[in-house]
C-alpha cells in the first residue's frame, strides 16, 4: 500500500510540536487547567475558518479580553456589563459571542462542563453526529439575546448535514493524545472520530482518490473517514496531518 506508507510518513513529519505554532490548536496549549483548555478550545474552534492569520489575530484579541483566564472569565461573565468588544469576525458580531459566553456561564454555574455536555449527548446513542446535534440544541434553546445569523455560523446546525469541520477538529484536539492533540476526553474512542473536512482537505483527498463525492457535506466526511480507516482503523483521523502535509509538499 504505497499511499498508506506515504501518508504515514507525512503523519510523522507533521504531527509534531512545530505544527502547533501556526494552527488554532495553539490556543489549548497555552493552558494547563482542564477547564481553561476546554473553554479555550471551544471558542478557538468556532472562529477557526477563513484566513489563519486573521482568525488567529481575532482569537488573540478575545483571549486578551479574558486576561488569558477563559474559564474564570466565563464563570463570572455578566452579559449586561460584558467586555466583549471588537470581536466581530466575518459573519458573526459581538452579540453572537456574548450569547455563547452567556450560555457557557449558565452551564458552568450549574456545575456542568463542556465535557459533561458532550458526554451526555454522546452516550445517548453513541453517535457523534447526534452528539453534535444535542450540543447545538442546548445552545439554541438558551438564545435570549438578539443574535445574528453569525451565531448559527459559529455553532452550525448538524441537522443541515454540513461537514462540521470545526466541531470534528475540536473532537480531534480533545480525544486524541499526541504532541499536537491534547487528549483530555476519554468517553469517545479515537477510532470513532471523523475527519475535519474543509475544501482544502477535500481537494487533496479527491486528488488521492480517497474521496469520490463532489460535495463537502456529511456524506463526504463519512466516505473519507471510512477510507482512512482502511489505513488505520484505530486512529483514522491522524491522517488529518498527512493530508495537510501532502497538500504543502505538493502545493495543492
Write the layout of secondary structure elements.
Layout: H1 2-14, H2 34-47, H3 52-65, H4 70-75, H5 94-109, H6 114-125, H7 128-141, H8 149-154, H9 165-175, H10 199-207, H11 218-229, H12 239-249
User: Which percent bin holds the helix content?
Assistant: 40-55%
Strand content is under 5%
Largest sheet: none
- Helix-strand pattern: HHHHHHHHHHHH
Radius of gyration: 18 Å
Q: Oligomeric status of the shown chains? A: single chain
Tell me the count of domains: 1
Overall spatial form: globular
In whole angstroms, the N-to-C terminal distance is 22 Å
Number of helical elements: 12
List how many beta strands DSSP finds: 0
* Structural category: mainly alpha
Overall pLDDT: 96
Note poorly predicted spans.
none
Could you please describe the fold and organization of this structure?
The chain is mainly alpha-helical and 252 residues long. The protein has one domain. It has twelve helices and no strands. α6 (114-125) crosses α7.
